[in-house]
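pasting for ref
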Amino acid sequence: MTIKNKNRRQFLQHAALGAATAAFPGLVLANKGQVKSRATPGFNPDVEIAMTAREGYVPVLKSGPNTRVQKYYGKLIKGPKDTLQHLKGNYLGPIINYEKGQKVRIYFNNGLKEPSIIHWHGLHVPQKSDGHPMYTIQSGEKFVYEFEVMNRAGTSFYHSHTHELTAEQVYQGLAGIITVTDDEEKKIELPTGEYDIPFVLQDRTFNNRNQLQYLKGMHGRMSGFLGDTILVNGKPNVEFEVKSRAYRFRGLNGSNSRIYKLGWDDGTPLTAIGTDAGLLEKPETRPYIMLAPGERIDLWLDFSGRAVGTKLVMYSLPYTGAMPPMYEKMQKGKGGSSKGMGGGMMGGMGGMGMMGGGGLAQGAKFPIASFKVTEKVSDSPRLPKRLVKFDRLTERDVDNAHDPLPIAISMKPMRPMLNGKSYSMDRVLDFERVPLGSTKKIKIFHDHGMKKGEHGDDDEKMDMGGKKSGGMNMGGGMGGGMMFSMAHPIHLHGQQYQIISRKPGGMRLDEYETVKDGFIDSGWKDTVLVMPGEEIEIIKPFQDFKGFFLYHCHNLEHEDLGMMRQFYVY
């Protein structure tokens, strides 16, 4: 980043904070221009962690030079000794293991040469500890996070959330996995220890000196980064040596924009026991499982009865419909791109160009990881018939059953937006103001029929007092914007939500058939994949904390282009 751009971003951030303070005087916002390094008197943490982001060199590939990355380094100051699990020789940050009810304090030091802040994706925490871009700190500054772990048992993760730098900083390595356990989970005796394994999926592109290559140009950012090398837990060509018993694999899609269709090479179904940040009520089995950026899936992988020497390969299976129609047509004509696990070291710019460029195509078939049975054992936990108690939300729990809050996805040329707006740190629409303690029905849909001036950024009077519909086509328009239609993983900060309906639609139903059996919608979620033409209704509580809580596309390139808004909980 140049000094000019750095100063401009800092100036714009401070200006936005000043405007936000005036517009929301009762809200405690970031202290403009101050180092946010003060611990709260009287807050007595059970866990204290020092976390530093800085550049480093790690051996990502098996031969050749080390790769320059940005990496989180963690040190446990106070708490159980297994709170941090370090991954040696890896760009991923340490695994952070929490227990529900713990009070946590994290001292974050920005050792990068550019601004940064950490978002605890999936954790239900106060605004000040959520990683909102307003709290972005500059190089050399510190920030203190303080929160109680309120989540149920499950899998979350953490990553950079610096506005306009999120995609590249996550791509460079700023991410790590979080686990939470609780008493209810311990009672059901799921696989633990060496049988509880992270499964972080990412794609990257390297040059001939093993250095990461990222996107250049607006067209590549519009489609999202697609690399040619698949990494699992920060390494290519991964083979897990397993025993003939059951394992828990905590799947996380940590890619910038790639969507995976997980499935075994021999057609064996997959069983899930958890979704985003929470266990399911009971296990669910699917022929394959779709996993979009930001989503997590806890898998029950049982190798019982498999002979020693047996080898299985997990693939991302082929599918269509996630990219614009022209992209899909071109890939069909080329037969897709399907390099082997780890990919060929092309040295090109993965995902470059609106039509996808030289990386593995979105929806191509490729191997992710192999699993080799190396030891036969007789003891293995059985898959529980029931997992955890589940409070099912219905429309009886909401106060707007017939008037859902909209999240309208639009892809104008070079302007991905939500509700017809790009991100503004100091602005919310009327319907984005939500009372504390309320539970809302929200409708997520594609709005490709927008007309200029109805609710776009040129209509500034909408920022603080627009009508709820804002001219949006609540049925999901099918105008000329369909040529840019693609799948979007929509992530809502704050509490998890439940999906109550998923309605396919539009002109791409034949493509929808290739993905429809892979959605697990019965659990608690914070990220949901919305296919082109699809309408999804969710119910989301807004409890415990006031403040700004973001919602955005977790195609990180889209997020950085402004496909992000925020709720103001008051």
